[in-house]
Amino acid sequence: MRVELPKEKVFPMPFRFWLILAVSVLVPFFSGMHPAIFVFWLIGLWGVTARRGTVLRSEDQKMFRYYSVYGIPLGSWEPIIPNAGVVVLGEQQAIRQTSYAGVMRYQEQAGYALYLINESHREKVLLARVARRDELNPYMKELEEEFNLKLVRFAPAISAKTKARRKR
């Protein structure tokens, strides 16, 4: 059985790629510029179509983490970590942009990420990012039944050296 987890856009705000695409298509028609400007058309399409995703295959317990551009997935099959679990963590991303005129734009995005973790919770492998946690609910049952990946509470082991440093 194959399970395809939700895809995410590589560039969550693709406005500048739409702008590059529009300019690269319109400029040659109105100004008679060289057709080489259509290379920028490819850059715009690359930004608009770029996606990340994960496909899990239960027959051989492998996962395919890919980067898709122009609809073509690029990646390789990797084995799923033995004795692994999955964890859902909340994420918050802040983006701050400043223009030459001194105008500042600040935007925050909150979401959730599904990670594959090992026994010690030290290794995390990103499987999917979503805006709302309930988008992952249909996949959790399949992950537990087909792949024996149980949803666990994230609690990484803290070494004695770190504990001693925190006591100081």
Commentary on this structure:
The strands form 2 sheets. Strands 1, 2, 3, 4 and 5 form a 5-stranded antiparallel sheet that branches. Strands 8-7-6-9 form a 4-stranded mixed sheet, with helices on one face. The chain has helices spanning 15-31, 38-49, 137-147, 160-167, and strands at 2-4, 8-9, 51-57, 62-69, 72-79, 85-98, 104-117, 124-130, 150-151. The model has no long low-confidence stretch (mean pLDDT 85). With 168 residues, it is of the alpha+beta class. It has one domain (2-155).
How is this fold's topology laid out?
Blueprint: E1 2-4, E2 8-9, H1 15-31, H2 38-49, E3 51-57, E4 62-69, E5 72-79, E6 85-98, E7 104-117, E8 124-130, H3 137-147, E9 150-151, H4 160-167
Parallel strand pairs: 6-9
Antiparallel strand pairs: 1-3, 2-3, 3-4, 4-5, 6-7, 7-8
Helix pairs in contact: 1-2
Describe the main β-sheet briefly: 5 strands, antiparallel
Strand runs, count: 9
> What gyration radius follows from the Cα positions, in whole Å?
21 Å
Give the averaged pLDDT, no decimals.
85
Stretches where pLDDT falls below 50 for ≥5 residues?
none
Separation of the first and last Cα atoms: 51 Å
Assign a percent range to the helix content.
25-40%
Based on Cα principal axes, name the global outline.
extended
The structure class reads alpha+beta
- Helix/strand order: EEHHEEEEEEHEH
Q: How many separate structural domains?
A: 1
Count up the helices. Answer: 4
Give the DSSP E fraction (strand runs of 2 or more residues).
Answer: 35-45%
